[in-house]
Structures are given as structure tokens and as C-alpha cells.
């Protein structure tokens, strides 16, 4: 099963490489990875999506927790959560396809953020499957470039991941 | 308030931390530190002849004493030479602090002379690592390094120190930090009481229980408690290679050790058990054989200080995360005054076990006939007699290691010092050196093979410099015996590069360093030679014992089989 694991870690040089290294060292898989500072300058938040059965996920969370730089960790998929990813994509937009692309962008509640005579740059947010669906819809028109941030997520409700 | 340079802070910190010996080798990036060490006389620096030996010596010391071993090396090749020793300590959870010189911080990343990203290189084989970014942080970082190395599940910690951090001209305030806190590191101090209760209930009800305990009991200093608990319950116990001696092997309840080359009765008892009480052991592949066939009728209680060890390879029915000592003590207090629910079943279980024991008695190996070449097993048995089972025995890796573990009887923990997890040839001799310096009045013997010894024999020179009186028993089968054994079993005896051609004349080699060497060819020479070797505690003596190159280590678990599937000799199997 696919899991979204969010980590608060020390904002230290080398911390990221320990996390990433752990995945390759122990043969765990990384689907997406996303990392950025938080409101607390001493912490960064890293979100990783991974696939594995319960035994593997248990090992992943245990080993992550063991890293000295990992301060706190949550497997968001264990509860209700919000999952978002941002994607920027350049699609061909020539002739009749120009309108077609525009319509699809509206249907997906995406935005065109840059335009040239031959292409649109589209910004879209949502969960990973929505982004996948948009790419599928655009494929016949011609996708020129894709930049995805990787999944970020947060628990629903009162639960807070903090120190 | 005291102002010290980074280098002097390191020397002072080591003093304040109570470090007596450090093992190392100098080089450009570490020279400020070496100068600081020169100007003090509390911390003794031992100059090895190869950085790998420094790590093994510190490791040996750590295993024997339970305190972190300390290593100092220079950047680049000095640090990379230490890698094997760091990995060895990591695999066996040994506390160690490795101080590495590094190029000046403004040169980092430029491929400067002798620059290696040692933090990167060692990342997967350390418990944690630090890079010093300002001299003023040295005391705190070092304290953290020692704290991390020694607490929880112990392990090696690397501290990377750019040369400018130790510059003699820059001085900062030094205060010895008595304590440090790491917000993300809180090793458990006790197990879950409910789980412990549940475990004890299962133990009292079990019909065919067996304790399976590992290195965690040794490093967790829980041997006394374990012995109490096992005696109170009257259960059989088997240990891992790393756990040998945590329960006295001469006691009837001890079945020896288990796994690939473990005793017949240990592996049989495990396979037929209905309850396995695992403490400080990690169900590794050299123990379990094929996990899908592992102990089919057993429920498993698993106690470990490291949560990631629990249910890693074999699912635990009752997981308990906590230090061995406190969990065992809680178990003891719960067991006290209680009686076993089914004493008849336990008695029957013991009958079965005694039956297995009897089956193999006197058949473990065939002793040599008079005048014949010696069997390695009888050499170890003689060594055990001569040292009354009380020596610190270090080993290298190979057949001799297994024979040492099988035929020397250990009644104390921390006495068999062996590289179990990584299986590092070259470990034994420097480890013995590190132990002997710290326990000068004890017998310290390295049981080695001519292959392994040649990987670290340059340390004879270190022993000469510091007068280290270790004994070396070279079980010389003129071959990489363990490799050869596998080739006999799996490659129709095609001995690809397992034969050691052009061995040195060990006698002359040892004498070149000014030490005593003896060659032993026959049984009647053996004990007198051992007696002579151990007569003087402070003299290094090397025994080159010619042993049968055709001998195999048995029992040997059949690959992909269950615990009970074993070859028992060249002609018998279960
Ligand atoms: C550094 C290292 N290289 C290779 C091996 C693989 N290996 C395991 S046992 C062995 C043979 C050891 O020979 P020797 O020291 O003579 O011991 P023996 O088995 O003959 O008793 C080898 C090569 C190892 N364990 N460590
Ligand atoms: Mg050999």
C-alpha cells in the first residue's frame, strides 16, 4: 500500500542525506520526496511517499525514528489527511488544441500561468491521482515538460505535528 | 573561565571524560590535535601501524570494558583505512568514538589534498556523525558523541574535525559539559509493563520454552539478571555467538550457541520449542536459517532496546522494547513466588533435550591419532584447560573462529571477543592488543588463522613498542579454511584461491620483532607449549600450530532449511 510519511527533522546539513540514504541502504522505495523549512527555523519538514506492506512500512518508520536528526514522524495515511501536490506543465497549444487545452484546464480547476504563441504553462494542484489524470488528458495534445513538487500532506482535524 | 584552542579542548575533553587510551595514527589534518596530546600526559595515545587496527583495538577494549573505545585518525586515507573497523563496530553495536581530521573548512569540496567526505562514506555504518563547524562547539559535540555511542543501542560515532577548527591561535571558552540533551534522542529506559506481564504469563505456562539471548544482554550488562531469571525458571538457554558467556556455559541449562554452526541441541531445541524468549538478539540470517521454516511451533517474545530490531525478520508475538537489564529485572520480580504451570511438561522437555545432547556426545569431532596432524578443535580445548576458561579470547574470522567459540567454554560475558556481524578478518589481533593494554593482568589470547593474521600482522610492531603481552594461537591449516570448506561442500572441492601458497616462516617473522614463537606439530607438544606461552603474562608469544587442513566445522545448517536441518559431520546429517 502507498503511505505518506511526514517527518520533522533537524535543519542540519547532512540530515536529508541520512534520510535518503536510509531508503537506499535498506532497500526501501521512495515514490516522491519533498522537503522545505518550517516556521521553526531549526526544523525542516520532509514528506515521502512510499509503497510497501505493513511489515515494510513498520520498518521504515522505525528506522526513520532511529535517525538522530529525525525529531518527529507521522504516517499520514493512518488517519484522515489532506494530500496535495503542485505541478507545472508545459503543453503544446497550437490551432484548435489551444481551446481544447483551455477547457481541460478549467475542468481540472488548474490555471494557465504563462503563455507563448505555441504553448501554455499550466499550474495544477491536487492529490497525485488528479495530477496523473490531468497528464493523461493532456497526452494527446502533447506534453512538453513536467515539474512536480512531490506530495505534501497534513492531517485533518485537530491533530498537529509539532514538537 | 578557561580559554583553549580547539585542539587543546579535544585533549582536555578526553581527560575530563575519563578516557585513558586512544588509538590512532597522525597525519596533516590531525597534527594540531597530536600536538595537544603531546603536551599532556593523562590520555595515553597508542600509535598503531594501520588505522584499521586502531578501530579494532578500540573496539576490543570497548567490548571487554563496556566503555566507548576512542580512535583518532587523519583525513583522507587515514579515515578511509578506519572504515572497516567502524563497520565492524556498527554491526555488533559496539560503542566507539572516531575522531577524524579533515582538510581546512574553506577547502572542503575542492578535492583538496587528502580530502574525503568521511561523513558521507561512513553514513550507513555509524550510529550518528558530526562535523565541527566552529571550535567553540567542540566540547558539546564530543559530549554528544560519547553519549550517543554508549547509550541505547550502542554504536560508533564519527566526528569530522576540519584542521582550522583546531588551530592553536584561536582560543575559546572551555567548560566540560556534564550532560547533553538531544531532543530527538530518548532511548527507552524500561519496557512496557503490560507486555512484560503478558510475557511472564506465557513463560510460566510454556511446555517447551527456550531462552535465545544475544549480544544485547552483554552490551546491556544484564548477564547477572539473565542468569538469575533462567535459573529460577529452570528453562534451557541458548545464546547467539555474540551472546556467549552471558549465561555460564558450564551450567547444565546452557545448550551452547545456536545458528549456522551452533550446537545440535540448541538448534533442535529452538525448532521444537513452543515458546522462544529472545532477549537482545536480532534473528539474523546466521541464526534463523530460512525464516519461513523457522521454529514452526513457537510463540515468540522479543525483548530489544532497538524497536527496529523487533519483528524485523521474524514477527514477534509479544514485542517488548526496552533495555535487557530493566526488562529482565521486572521479569524476575514477576516470576518470584510463582511456580511453573506444567512442571511435568518441562521435565519431559528436558528429557528430550538431554536425549539430543547424548546423541552427539563424544561425536563432535574425531581427535587426532598419535603422531598425526592436530585437529583444531583439540587445540582450542587444550587452550581452554591451560587458561582455566578465564582468558579473554579474541578471534579472527574463519573456521578457527567457530572452533574457538565451540570448544572454549565461557562462563563470563565479554570474554569471547569476535566480529560476529561483519565477520572481519584481521579483527582479532588488534582487538586483543586493545584488551591487554587495559587488562594487563589477565590472559588475553587471539585465536587466529594464517590467513586472517596476515591481514593485521603489522601490529606486532605496536605490541613491541608498548610491550603488549598478548598470546597468539595460529591455527595454521595453510588454507583459507572456511572458504575451502564451502568449496568442498558446494563446488566439488575446486579450491579456487583458498590455498595459501608461500606462507611466511611465522617463527622467523615473530622473532624479527623480538618475540618468542613456537611451532607445534603434535599433540604431545601442544600443552607444554601452551603452558610455556602463558607462563609469563607480559610477554607476547606466538604459537604456530599446524592443524588438519581437511577439517570442517560442524554442525552446519543446511542452506534454506529449518533450524534443525544440519550437517553433523562429513557423512551424517539430520
Ligand atoms: C576481510 C575479509 N575478507 C574476506 C573474508 C571471507 N572469509 C571468511 S573466512 C575466510 C578464510 C579465513 O582464513 P583463515 O584466517 O586462515 O582461517 P581458517 O578458516 O583457515 O581457520 C575468508 C577469506 C572475510 N571474512 N573478511
Ligand atoms: Mg587458515
UniProtKB/TrEMBL annotation, chain A:
Enzyme Commission no: 2.2.1.6
* MF (Gene Ontology): acetolactate synthase activity; acetolactate synthase regulator activity
Q: Which UniProt keywords apply?
A: Amino-acid biosynthesis, Branched-chain amino acid biosynthesis, Transferase
Pfam families hit by this protein: ACT_AHAS_ss, ALS_ss_C
The answer to keyword ATP-binding applying to this record is no
Keyword Amino-acid biosynthesis among record annotations: yes
Q: In which pathway does it act?
A: Amino-acid biosynthesis; L-isoleucine biosynthesis; L-isoleucine from 2-oxobutanoate: step 1/4; Amino-acid biosynthesis; L-valine biosynthesis; L-valine from pyruvate: step 1/4
Q: Name one GO cellular component term.
A: cytosol
**Oligomeric state and partners?**
Dimer of large and small chains.
Q: In its UniProt entry, what is this protein called?
A: Acetolactate synthase small subunit
Q: Which taxonomic lineage does the organism of this UniProt entry have?
A: Bacteria, Pseudomonadati, Pseudomonadota, Gammaproteobacteria, Oceanospirillales
